[in-house]
Specification:
Length: 215
């Protein structure tokens, strides 16, 4: 079992990820800018809690589940704390109020921005852009795929191994720059939810064969 921090773990997505990881038997720490909020979430989930910088230290994985507007400050505050941990950034560059419109940043995607904020030495993976937070914050199996992106193949594989423990199928989406596709799909899924009155629409890839070595 792994030691895992969920930074921004008091939000809907963070709580859902933390709940699933804790249920799978991992040692989870909820991180937040507000220690009081972190404690409330941790008491509900039966996990540890700490301020973001402390939560990020001494972990195997650090999930970052904050809004795009908070990404730079959050990653900047933990980049010197994470050490050899794999940082899993779930940030999507939504631009309110037009969240149903794809609006990727000038750099190409939030993942590229995350790399800039963390520097070249932090092990960075992105993903979990297209899974509904309220579905994660439950115990049922989730009928959608989770795309995972990284230039660090071993880190990407490590995150993919966590996915079935969380009740989702994880798929390699390739290089970090490919995260643009996953991030863009979030706005499309928000549109689909509204247009088709869906309860957390997801995506599913068909006709795939299992590959023992994921490139």
């Amino acid at each position: 079992m792994a030691a895992i921090a969920v930074i921004g773990g008091t939000g809907a997505l963070g709580k859902g990820i933390a709940r699933r990881l804790a249920k799978a038997g991992h040692t989870v720490t909820i991180g937040s800018r507000s220690v009081d909020k972190a404690k409330l979430a941790a008491d509900e989930l039966g996990t540890a809690y700490a301020a973001n910088e402390d939560a990020a230290s001494g972990q195997d994985f650090v999930f970052v589940t904050v809004p795009h507007a908070s990404q730079a400050d959050t990653l900047g505050s933990i980049k010197d704390k994470v050490g050899d941990a794999i940082v899993v950034d779930t940030t999507v560059p939504l631009v309110p109020p037009k969240v149903m419109r794809v609006q990727l940043p000038a750099e190409g995607c939030s993942a590229v921005q995350a790399r800039q904020h963390l520097g070249p030495d932090v092990r960075l993976v992105t993903g979990f852009h297209n899974v509904s937070a309220h579905h994660l914050d439950g115990d049922h199996a989730i009928e959608c795929d989770v795309l995972v992106f990284s230039d660090d193949i071993e880190a990407r594989k490590a995150v993919l191994e966590l996915c079935p423990q969380m009740g989702v199928r994880g798929l390699s989406g390739g290089a970090l720059a490919n995260s643009a596709a996953g991030e863009a799909l979030t706005s499309i899924l928000i549109y689909m939810n509204k247009t088709y009155k869906a309860d957390g629409a997801g995506i599913r890839f068909t006709r795939l064969t299992e590959a023992p070595d994921i490139p």
